[in-house]
Amino acid sequence: MSSAFDSPIDDQTLALARTGDGRGQEAIYRCFSRAVFTLARRMTHCPDAAADIMQNTFLRAFRCLPQYRGDAPFGRWLRSIAATESLMHLRAGRKTLSLFETDNLEAGDEPAIEDLCQLDLEKALSLMPPVPRAVLWLYHVEGYTHFEIAQMCGRTPSFSKSQLSRAHQRLRELLQNDVRQAAVATAPEVS
Questions:
Q1: Any alpha helices (H) in 114-156, and if so which ranges?
Q2: DSSP one-letter code for 98
Q3: Domain hosting residue 15, numbered range
């Protein structure tokens, strides 16, 4: 599966960026800014947080560019930085209360049943606690392994596996509730 992070960067642009040249950095930014923003938004479900994460990602990438060895395509290296920055944002608790609890929803945070009508996958993901949503996204969409996710979170692979399991369970519940609501809404009346 091809990703926006798979866009090639030529050696000359990379060399310019490594020297701190604004033209090389701008070319890299223009090539990957949308992909970085999209990844951060999917993980945090907050456009403002995604914009901050995107800025931090590029600042960190340009600062660490001398460490890029070229073992993997540049976009994959940048994707790793963006994912780490997103997880650091979530871990800092800027979006929610405590992120590493087993259940991040308080009693009043559950969506009303009428809000679940017409629920699609995007909305279901937005209703999930941030860490399980981020792990689900990193694992299924970005293709990270449990070991890699655990390293990014500073946890064990079993943490990643349990968060993914919770994400699957919560997603299933949200989507099943939506299907039930749709069935009730479209069922013919019995006289």
A1: 121-126, 130-136, 146-153
A2: -
A3: 1-95
Straight-line distance from the first to the last Cα atom of the chain, in angstroms, rounded to the nearest whole number? 52
Tokens 């090539």 sit at which residue? 31
Q: Among 86, 76, 81, which Cα is nearest to 137's?
A: 86
Q: How many residues does the chain have?
A: 191
Instruction: Specify burial of residue 158 (Cβ count, 10 A radius: 0-12, 13-18, 19+).
Output: exposed
List the structure tokens of 176: 């099943």
Q: How many angstroms separate the CA atoms of 81 and 61, rounded?
A: 7
Judgement on whether residues 4 and 90 belong to the same structural domain of the protein:
yes
pLDDT tens column, 107-147: 444 444 344 333 467 777 788 888 888 888 888 888 888 99
